[in-house]
């Protein structure tokens, strides 16, 4: 497994590099500035304000500032909002940023006081914009939460911004627990966010700027501008009727706090909050460019696999979407079918990217119902399983009732795939032993954990049991991290400085 793990870790690293924000942003901003100069050939370009928001904010800001320096343009102000400070040797510290740029750290994935502070920093940076300026808005994954703050209307309705921020946090938590896809969550959240649904572009336009260059690294399936970061510089394409239908399709009315329900137009005679529409003059100033996306990461993985001598590289055209647990089992089954058709001595890799979901509400309900008796039954079912790995045996122990749920969608997918491979191996299907996979986020953090994801094979569940875990129970109750950690299967990379959703590489060797 050691050589296989190194190869799969290298493929993940290639995916991250394929969506590296610095170079992508530098080139895109350079092209935009050339177009701006051509459009205004009779006058020099004015000073520029930079708003870099999201997990890739540091590297995107540095890339943009490098392009500005090449064009001898001055950075007059702006702000960088991210979820981490840059550290030596990682993306985000390629070149020093101008001191005029404010710095802020927001909360992620559930917005809190730090996100409100970050939004206030954005407001202050907007007030510093002088008429006639150029503005760059650099968006990447995590923007919605990191800059989340209530609209003025919501703050007035509940009393003040701090109380309104608590409602924003509760809304985010409810949507996360409900298993909504990111585009559905952002469709709902942007209605009540200070800078969502085009409100950032509207606020900047009021300062009398001449253009708003918007550059986005997509962390959503479909790369829809109104979904990335909840569309700070894009009009909301959903009308009120479709918006309310979405809320009802997920039965959200009874799950929302009354104040939020009223704010979203679900109570009494209330109506959904107004948002800037496509005919708003602000959007005429916006030039939108998609800088990098998940497809770039998957393509980089494919190139790296070929460079490693893999015989056959298969890339899925359809994005990974839907339930992460089911996807893990399906990928394992597909890999087994592929392995049966391969000539001896050959290798194949299956590549895919996207963003599955985990229905936390359903998982929480299972965890509540899941008692020691169920854990004991699952452990008992493996008393007669042949030893698949050579490791000291620790008696299986049930998960403690107060043990926290811990894991992410890629860890769920990986553990599900490992269990499916183990089951096939136990049935005597030797092809299962030829398969290993990496499932990880490109941002370096899968869910609220210290890992980007995991690298697994058919031996991982047995390794977890030998360390005292019950992987079936951990998967079922939202504790996938514990089994994967016990099996030494987690992939820990630290923050990558980018975010283009998740990637999976399934390696098959005969």
From TrEMBL:
<dbReference type="InterPro" id="IPR037035">
    <property type="entry name" value="GK-like_C_sf"/>
</dbReference>
<dbReference type="InterPro" id="IPR038614">
    <property type="entry name" value="GK_N_sf"/>
</dbReference>
<keyword id="KW-0418">Kinase</keyword>
<dbReference type="InterPro" id="IPR025286">
    <property type="entry name" value="MOFRL_assoc_dom"/>
</dbReference>
<dbReference type="GO" id="GO:0005737">
    <property type="term" value="C:cytoplasm"/>
</dbReference>
<dbReference type="Pfam" id="PF05161">
    <property type="entry name" value="MOFRL"/>
</dbReference>
<dbReference type="Pfam" id="PF13660">
    <property type="entry name" value="DUF4147"/>
</dbReference>
<dbReference type="GO" id="GO:0008887">
    <property type="term" value="F:glycerate kinase activity"/>
</dbReference>
<dbReference type="InterPro" id="IPR039760">
    <property type="entry name" value="MOFRL_protein"/>
</dbReference>
<dbReference type="InterPro" id="IPR007835">
    <property type="entry name" value="MOFRL"/>
</dbReference>
<feature type="domain" description="MOFRL">
    <location>
        <begin position="406"/>
        <end position="502"/>
    </location>
</feature>
<keyword id="KW-0808">Transferase</keyword>
<protein>
    <submittedName>
        <fullName>Putative glycerate kinase</fullName>
    </submittedName>
</protein>
<feature type="domain" description="MOFRL-associated">
    <location>
        <begin position="8"/>
        <end position="264"/>
    </location>
</feature>
């Amino acid at each position: 497994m050691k050589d296989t793990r190194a190869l799969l870790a290298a493929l993940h690293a290639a995916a991250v590099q394929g969506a590296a924000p610095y170079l992508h942003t530098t080139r895109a901003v350079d092209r935009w500035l050339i177009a701006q100069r051509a459009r205004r050939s009779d006058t020099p370009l004015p000073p520029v304000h930079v708003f870099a928001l999201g997990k890739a904010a540091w590297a995107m800001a540095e890339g943009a500032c490098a392009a500005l320096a090449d064009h001898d343009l001055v950075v007059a102000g702006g702000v960088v909002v991210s979820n981490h400070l840059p550290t030596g040797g990682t993306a985000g510290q390629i070149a020093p940023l101008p001191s005029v740029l404010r710095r802020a750290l927001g909360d992620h994935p559930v917005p809190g006081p730090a996100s409100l502070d970050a939004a206030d920093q954005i407001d202050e940076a907007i007030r510093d914009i002088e008429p006639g300026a150029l503005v760059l808005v650099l968006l990447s994954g995590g923007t919605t939460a990191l800059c989340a703050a209530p609209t003025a209307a919501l703050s007035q309705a509940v009393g003040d911004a701090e109380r309104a921020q608590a409602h924003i946090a509760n809304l985010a938590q409810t949507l996360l627990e409900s298993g909504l896809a990111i585009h559905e969550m952002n469709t709902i959240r942007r209605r009540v966010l200070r800078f969502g649904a085009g409100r950032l572009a509207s606020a900047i336009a009021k300062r009398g700027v001449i253009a708003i260059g918007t550059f986005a690294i997509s962390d959503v399936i479909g790369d829809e501008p109104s979904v990335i970061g909840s569309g700070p510089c894009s009009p909301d394409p959903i009308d009120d009727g479709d918006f309310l239908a979405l809320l009802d399709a997920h039965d959200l009315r009874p799950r929302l706090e009354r104040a939020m329900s009223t704010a979203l137009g679900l109570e009494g005679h209330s109506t959904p909050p107004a948002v800037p529409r496509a005919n708003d003059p602000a959007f005429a100033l916006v030039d939108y460019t998609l800088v990098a996306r998940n497809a770039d990461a998957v393509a980089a993985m494919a190139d790296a696999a070929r460079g490693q001598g893999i015989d056959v590289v298969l890339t899925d055209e359809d994005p990974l979407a839907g339930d992460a647990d089911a996807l893990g089992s399906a990928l394992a089954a597909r890999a087994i079918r592929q392995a049966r058709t391969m000539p001896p001595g050959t290798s194949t890799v299956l590549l895919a990217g996207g963003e599955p979901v985990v229905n936390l509400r359903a998982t929480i309900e299972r965890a509540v119902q899941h008692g020691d008796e169920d854990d004991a039954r699952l452990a008992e079912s493996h008393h007669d399983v042949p030893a698949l790995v050579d490791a000291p045996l620790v008696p299986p122990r049930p998960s403690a009732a107060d043990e926290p749920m811990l894991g992410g969608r890629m860890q769920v997918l990986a553990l599900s795939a490992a269990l499916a491979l183990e089951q096939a191996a136990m049935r005597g299907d030797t092809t299962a032993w030829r398969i290993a996979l990496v499932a990880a986020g490109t941002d370096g953090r899968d869910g609220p954990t210290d890992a980007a994801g995991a690298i697994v094979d058919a031996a991982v569940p047995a390794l977890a049991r030998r360390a005292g875990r019950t992987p079936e129970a951990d998967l079922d109750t939202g504790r996938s991290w514990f089994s994967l950690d016990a099996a030494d299967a987690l992939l820990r990379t630290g923050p990558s400085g980018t975010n283009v959703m998740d990637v999976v590489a399934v390696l098959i060797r005969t």
